[in-house]
């Protein structure tokens, strides 16, 4: 008789613990997602603003170097415009972000601009 | 084994620090070395011995990890932990710094010149590989930044005849890159090593690639045409041979002799080894045997090994103890 009662307390205890854990997990997960999403969009918008600014500065310049830099800018700007802002489950997110970051490093190298944007953007990917 | 590896000369190249790398110029008249003392030293032959001709000491603020000569022999590139790559121009017996390539976020681990002389590749602990183009006015411009590795990239090497690049990393993989529409992309990832891949070398024809690793093995990779080969499909690279049980510790460097086809390795067990290919083996399943071995070639880790470009059998190695050793390898066959 004792063991049946103990067993049912175990089951109920487990169920309540599981439900509480699920609830808390959803709250924590939402906070985590919001925070990382915000960091990522800060980075993406900074990159976009940076790219558009340089595009404006270079587009009336006809020399060969300026043409090259404009062409190099097209790639990351294009990638950012195609970004699925409404799709948090987009599976190529990390890969596309790496491509954008690599393209921007290339552009900064061509423009002779140092790439330390830590005052504006805290990037570095999502870590778990 | 009636093959021998005899010591010709040993000297202290970088006093009180590590000698990280040695490279012969294309004519084989000069040897460049670099080390933990932040210098690059150029050695020339005087009779039977090698003497220090020049010391380049103000180029870098940290360890110089690798040096590479341009195919014409007039330029030297140096890759440093200070995140910069310097390009030096040779002027008689001296070198002047022509330009500094910046952009990597942290330690540059390797620099390599393409056989055409128009392209340069660098790689870094920041996980990226950069390809740079040199124009007629000696201006260097980055043309691609590729992030195919997920960890520190240790080495880059160009194919001897095609515009193809290979890199290896702390992520245990080797990546192969080709240019597509003005952009360099990773076309193949060679998986198989179970730890950091430290070095790469192509065979004289460029058909095979050898890699060496912290897993104490050497792997030979060959490009195989895909079945029912569609035009434009990339060939796959397969591991056709693994040399295991020969090295007691990490294999830090590997060099395929362009003249004889012998394979030399630099090991963390202080030894230098030379492997010979078995001529009778099936080309798709090559076999190598240990031809010569000097167990205590140095008193510390051997970091680099390089075959002379013109003199068959002449080999140079360098070590954590700052020494350079010059060897003569002779095959009895």
UniProtKB/TrEMBL annotation, chain A:
InterPro entries documented for this protein: LTO1_adapter (IPR052436)
Protein known as: Protein LTO1 homolog
Source species of the chain: Salvelinus namaycush (Lake trout)
Taxonomic placement: Eukaryota, Metazoa, Chordata, Craniata, Vertebrata
Automatic annotation (TrEMBL), chain B:
One biological process term in Gene Ontology: iron-sulfur cluster assembly
Pfam families: Beta-prop_WDR19_1st, WD40
Domain of life of the native organism: Eukaryota
Assigned keywords, A-Z: Repeat, WD repeat
Cellular component GO terms, alphabetical: cytosolic [4Fe-4S] assembly targeting complex
WDR19 first beta-propeller domain location: 21-186
WD repeats: 22-43, 57-89, 101-142, 146-178, 190-222, 295-333
PROSITE patterns, per database record: WD_REPEATS_1, WD_REPEATS_2, WD_REPEATS_REGION
Complex formation: Component of the CIA complex. Interacts with CIAO2A and forms a complex with CIAO2B and MMS19; the interactions with CIAO2A and CIAO2B are mutually exclusive. Interacts with CHD1L, ERCC2, IREB2 and POLD1. Component of the MMXD complex, which includes CIAO1, ERCC2, CIAO2B, MMS19 and SLC25A5. Interacts with WT1. Interacts with CIAO3. Interacts (via LYR motif) with HSC20.
Entry function: Key component of the cytosolic iron-sulfur protein assembly (CIA) complex, a multiprotein complex that mediates the incorporation of iron-sulfur cluster into extramitochondrial Fe/S proteins. As a CIA complex component, interacts specifically with CIAO2A or CIAO2B and MMS19 to assist different branches of iron-sulfur protein assembly, depending of its interactors. The complex CIAO1:CIAO2B:MMS19 binds to and facilitates the assembly of most cytosolic-nuclear Fe/S proteins. CIAO1:CIAO2A specifically matures ACO1 and stabilizes IREB2.
Family, as annotated: Belongs to the WD repeat CIA1 family.
Name under which the protein is recorded: Probable cytosolic iron-sulfur protein assembly protein CIAO1
Record organism: Salvelinus namaycush
Name of the coding gene: LOC120065803
């Amino acid at each position: 008789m004792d063991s049946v009662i103990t067993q049912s307390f175990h089951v109920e205890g487990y169920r309540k613990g599981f439900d509480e854990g699920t609830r808390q997990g959803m709250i924590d997960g939402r906070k985590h997602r919001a925070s990382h999403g915000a960091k990522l969009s800060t980075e993406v918008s900074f990159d976009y603003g940076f790219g558009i600014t340089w595009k404006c500065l270079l587009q009336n310049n006809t020399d060969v170097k300026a043409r090259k830099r404009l062409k190099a800018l097209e790639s990351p700007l294009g990638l950012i415009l195609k970004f699925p802002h409404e799709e948090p489950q987009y599976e190529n997110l990390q890969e596309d972000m790496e491509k954008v970051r690599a393209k921007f490093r290339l552009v900064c190298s061509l423009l002779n601009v140092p790439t330390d944007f830590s005052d504006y953007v805290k990037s570095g990917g999502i870590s778990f | 084994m009636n093959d021998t590896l005899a010591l010709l000369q040993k000297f202290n190249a970088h006093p009180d620090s590590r000698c990280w790398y040695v490279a012969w110029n294309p004519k084989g008249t000069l040897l460049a070395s670099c080390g933990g003392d932040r210098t690059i030293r150029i050695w020339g032959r005087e009779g039977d011995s090698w003497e220090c001709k020049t010391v380049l000491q103000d180029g870098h603020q940290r360890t110089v990890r690798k040096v590479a000569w341009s195919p014409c022999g007039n330029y030297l590139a140096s890759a440093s932990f200070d995140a910069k790559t310097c390009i030096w121009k040779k002027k008689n017996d001296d070198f002047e710094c022509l330009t500094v390539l910046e952009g990597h976020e942290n330690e540059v681990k390797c620099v390599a010149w393409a056989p055409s002389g128009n392209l340069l590749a660098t790689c870094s602990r920041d996980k990226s590989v950069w390809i740079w183009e040199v124009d007629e006015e000696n201006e260097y411009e980055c043309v691609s930044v590729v992030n195919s590795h997920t960890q520190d990239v240790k080495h880059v090497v160009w194919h001897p005849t095609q515009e193809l690049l290979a890199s290896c990393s702390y992520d245990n993989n080797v990546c192969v890159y080709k240019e597509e529409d003005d952009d360099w992309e990773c076309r193949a990832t060679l998986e198989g090593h179970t730890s950091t891949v430290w070095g790469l070398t192509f065979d004289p024809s460029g058909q095979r690639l050898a890699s060496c690793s912290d897993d104490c093995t050497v792997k030979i990779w060959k490009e195989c045409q895909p079945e029912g080969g569609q035009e434009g499909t990339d060939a796959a690279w397969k591991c056709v041979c693994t040399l295991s049980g020969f090295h007691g510790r990490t294999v830090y460097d590997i060099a395929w002799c362009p003249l004889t086809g012998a394979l030399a390795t630099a090991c963390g067990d202080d030894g230098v080894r030379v492997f010979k290919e078995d001529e009778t083996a099936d080309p798709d399943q090559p076999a190598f045997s240990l031809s010569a071995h000097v167990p205590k070639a140095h008193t510390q880790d051997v970091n680099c090994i390089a075959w002379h470009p013109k003199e068959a059998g002449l080999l140079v190695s360098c070590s954590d103890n700052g020494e350079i050793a010059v060897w003569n390898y002779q095959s009895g066959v």
